[in-house]
Design brief:
Layout: H1 179-199, H2 201-223, H3 232-249, H4 251-269, H5 277-302, H6 308-333, E1 337-339, E2 343-347, H7 348-370, H8 374-402, H9 418-438
Antiparallel strand pairs: 1-2
Helix pairs in contact: 1-2, 2-3, 2-5, 3-4, 3-5, 4-5, 5-6, 5-9, 6-7, 6-8, 6-9, 7-8, 8-9
Length: 443
């Protein structure tokens, strides 16, 4: 039955519509008697376009399976004629219904016994390599874990009761560090500095040189994350030399030590070739200025005659008061971030606490030790606190740029040594300049 065209066409649609004329001569096509030509029909890649021409599909080929009713739409995929023998296409799969492997043994089960995952002539206990070992019976995943026996409990667990509550994991402080460990390490570092400072001053120089060498090593390892490789040996040697020159020869020798360190790194780096020379030298110069040059001002403070140890002491006390006051005020009242993109945990309330604590403590300490008016001492403490906060922010910016949280894990609760020296390194040049005005050097 023909149906009128719903779109207004006059000619019928459906099975009554005549077939369109073909672009090639119409022949009596039989299923399975026509196929695409094999690779030998087009020996050259330029003739590959012949596959798109309609006349190439009109080449009759012999039926590879005479006498059967089943035909294939593709030619024999291998070279040469198909093998002679009985037609097995209508037979069930070898090995019985559902057998996963084919072969020439239709009535035999899969090799290796029932359920063996691999075919071949080896039993399930003999395999050439461990990669094709048989899959053994595995426990059902939905089964619950076996309960421990009544007389024993699992290692690392204890039963909770009213008398013995479950073990609670200690929560981290709001500052993000282990406060007891930080206090213990801070006290130990203070003793390491103060004891030689008051009892054997040359030992303080050794402690300062060791701290400079460790700080240079931490900085050099940290900047390698950015692809720069500053030479460590000339940096460490030049840093120790810079501190020693500042101790024995004063500010001019400190500048000379910095110059020698930078020139030494330039010459040493020449041995590694021109690749990334500028980047490595820039990183080395940053480290030379940041660590040994700024630390050299601590040597200048300690080398002052008669009261060098007191100058170092008031500087360190001001830095400690700034850090402690900022921590306490930030934890208690911190709500307005000071530099969220650099150090998210610093707040303006904490900065106010740092300045207040350092100003009050320095006013009292300088009045007692150097007979300086309290307002000058408060100004000294305010300047030291600002310099310490700027030093902390500077290192936080460097760590942000390098993608590290701490310079190292040398000090529990603090991170690396440079994480403790960051505020001190900016504070000692400020203290050296202000004390040179407030407390003139005797002799």
């Amino acid at each position: 039955m023909s149906h009128p065209d719903p779109y207004g066409g006059a000619e019928p649609r459906g099975w009554d519509r005549p077939a369109p004329a073909l672009p090639w001569p119409e022949t009596d096509l039989e299923p399975g008697s026509w196929q695409r030509p094999g690779p030998d029909a087009h020996p050259h890649p330029a003739d590959a376009g012949a596959y798109a021409r309609p006349e190439t599909y009109a080449r009759p080929v012999a039926d590879p399976y005479p006498g059967t009713t089943r035909r294939h739409d593709a030619a024999w995929p291998y070279d040469g004629p198909p093998p002679a023998g009985r037609d097995r296409r209508d037979e069930p799969a070898p090995g019985g219904p559902g057998a996963p492997w084919g072969g020439d043994r239709p009535d035999e089960p899969a090799p290796g016994g029932p359920g063996a995952p691999w075919g071949g002539d080896r039993p399930d206990d003999e395999y050439p390599t461990a990669q094709i070992a048989p899959v053994r019976d595995e426990p059902v995943r939905d089964e619950p874990a076996p309960e421990p026996s009544a007389g024993r409990r699992a290692r690392g667990r204890r039963r909770a009761s009213a008398d013995r509550p479950p073990t609670a994991v200690p929560a981290a402080s709001r500052a993000g560090r282990n406060l007891p460990a930080a206090i213990g390490v801070g006290v130990a570092l203070g003793a390491l500095i103060v004891v030689p400072l008051f009892f054997f001053l040359p030992a303080f120089l050794a402690v300062l040189a060791a701290a400079v060498a460790i700080g240079i090593g931490e900085m050099a390892r940290a900047v390698r994350r950015s692809g720069a490789h500053p030479p460590l040996v000339p940096l460490a040697a030049g840093g120790v030399l810079t501190v020693g020159l500042a101790w024995f020869a004063g500010p001019d020798a400190l500048c000379l030590g910095l110059l020698v360190t930078v020139l030494g790194t330039m010459i040493w780096r020449l041995g590694d070739g021109p690749g990334n020379y500028q980047r490595d030298l820039t990183a080395a110069t940053l480290i030379a200025v940041y660590v040994p040059f700024l630390a050299g001002f601590a040597a200048l403070l300690a080398a002052a005659p008669d009261d060098g140890h007191l100058r170092v002491l008031v500087t360190l006390v001001a830095v400690v008061l700034s850090d402690t006051g900022g921590y306490a005020a930030g934890v208690a009242f911190g709500k307005h971030p000071m530099a969220p993109t650099i150090s998210p945990k610093k707040s303006w309330e904490g900065f106010a606490g740092s300045v207040t604590a350092a100003a009050v403590g320095s006013a009292v300490l300088l009045w007692l030790l150097f007979d300086v008016a309290p307002w000058w001492g408060a100004l000294f403490g305010t300047a030291i606190s600002c310099a310490a906060v700027l030093g902390d922010l500077a290192e936080s910016m460097i760590k942000r740029d390098l993608g590290v949280k701490d310079m190292s894990n040398l000090l529990p609760g603090h991170g690396g040594l440079m994480d403790r020296l960051d505020s001190i390194l900016f504070a000692v040049p400020t203290a050296y300049l202000l004390l040179a005005v407030f407390v003139p050097v005797a002799g």
